[in-house]
């Protein structure tokens, strides 16, 4: 039995909701996991110079000599899984949780042990499905070397680890993840009262510009004559109702000696 020590980056990985997935479709889940490992995980580990130490049922333990390689491997796998899951129903998604630590490990007959491995396993337990949690030392060693964002989670008490560990959550670790989590910002609130906005169409040489109107009734924007939409001045009587006379008085002055912005203010 050969025992040595060395400094290593340790990646611990497991499948979130593994028991539920197996209970729902054992054969299908195992087949998909085999495919994911062959097509994505094993190639990523090889590309980033990692060593698969062992599999643990629904998890993996991987050793790297470089923190940067370990982070790149983990983020590449998670980004690829997010892309793969984009068209899969949520209840059927396979999602990994990953923990990454760097520390001194005991190597014995190809396996690795020690506090550094235990911390990586506990960090994995803090990660969200599809996420990566790393120790402060990993974040410090990788700073400026990888195009990743980190969120400080503060010091965490990890099970069976004597000292508190400062933890960081990896954010924005791939284009696929950015696209799936991009926030959609709401537009400004629309007024409750009936309102219109007036814009000129592209002018034709020798022909005066013709106003085009965007209008809104209380029900919102829609087709002409209904809730709202875009119309030219010939369609406007079907939607303006009592405001038609105001518009007809405004129309001859539009674009003729008065600024469009001021004209619109006068109209509404």
How does this model look, in words?
- With about 270 residues, the protein is an alpha+beta fold.
- It has 2 domains: about 5-180, 2-Layer Sandwich (Alpha-Beta Plaits); about 195-265, no CATH class.
- It has helices at about 20-25, 25-45, 65-85, 115-125, 135-140, 175-180, 235-240, 245-250, 260-265, and strands at about 5-15, 50-55, 60-65, 95-110, 110-115, 130-135, 150-155, 165-170, 195-200, 210-215, 230.
- Helix 1 packs across helix 2 and helix 3 (about 65-85) crosses helix 6 (about 175-180).
- The longest helix has 22 residues, at about 25-45.
- Residues about 175-185, about 210-230 and about 235-260 have low confidence and may be disordered.
Characteristics:
268 residues, alpha+beta, 2 domains, three-stranded antiparallel beta sheet, globular
Short overview:
This protein has 268 residues and is α+β, with helices and mostly antiparallel strands. 35% of the residues lie in helices and 29% in strands.
Topology, pairings included?
Blueprint: E1 3-15, H1 18-24, H2 26-47, E2 51-56, E3 59-64, H3 67-85, E4 96-108, E5 111-113, H4 115-126, E6 132-135, H5 136-142, E7 149-156, E8 165-171, H6 175-181, E9 195-200, E10 211-216, E11 228-232, H7 237-240, H8 244-250, H9 260-267
Parallel strand pairs: 4-6
Antiparallel strand pairs: 1-3, 1-4, 2-3, 4-5, 6-8, 7-8, 9-10, 10-11
């Amino acid at each position: 039995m050969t025992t040595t020590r060395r400094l290593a980056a340790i990646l611990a990985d497991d499948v979130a909701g593994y028991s539920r997935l197996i209970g729902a479709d054992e054969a299908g889940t195992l087949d998909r996991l085999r495919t994911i490992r062959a097509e994505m995980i094993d190639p990523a580990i090889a590309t980033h110079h990692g060593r698969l130490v062992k599999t643990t049922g629904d998890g993996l333990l991987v050793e790297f000599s470089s923190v940067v390689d370990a982070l790149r491997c983990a983020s590449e796998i998670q980004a690829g899984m997010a892309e793969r899951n984009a068209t899969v129903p949520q209840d059927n998604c396979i999602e990994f949780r990953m923990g990454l630590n760097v520390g001194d490990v005991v190597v014995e007959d190809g396996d690795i042990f020690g506090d550094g491995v235990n911390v990586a396993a506990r960090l994995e337990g803090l990660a969200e499905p599809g996420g990566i949690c790393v120790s402060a030392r990993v974040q410090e060693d990788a700073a400026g070397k990888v195009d990743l964002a980190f969120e400080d989670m503060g010091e965490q008490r990890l099970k069976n680890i004597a000292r508190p560990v400062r933890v960081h959550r990896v954010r924005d670790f791939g284009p696929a993840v950015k696209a799936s989590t991009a926030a959609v910002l709401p537009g400004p609130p629309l007024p409750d009262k009936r309102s219109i906005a007036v814009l000129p169409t592209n002018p034709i040489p020798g022909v005066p510009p013709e106003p085009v109107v965007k209008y809104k009734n209380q029900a919102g924007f829609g087709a002409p004559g209904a809730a709202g939409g875009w119309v030219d001045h010939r369609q406007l009587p079907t939607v303006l109702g009592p405001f038609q006379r105001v518009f007809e008085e405004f129309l001859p002055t539009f674009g003729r000696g008065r600024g469009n912005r001021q004209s619109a203010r006068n109209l509404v």
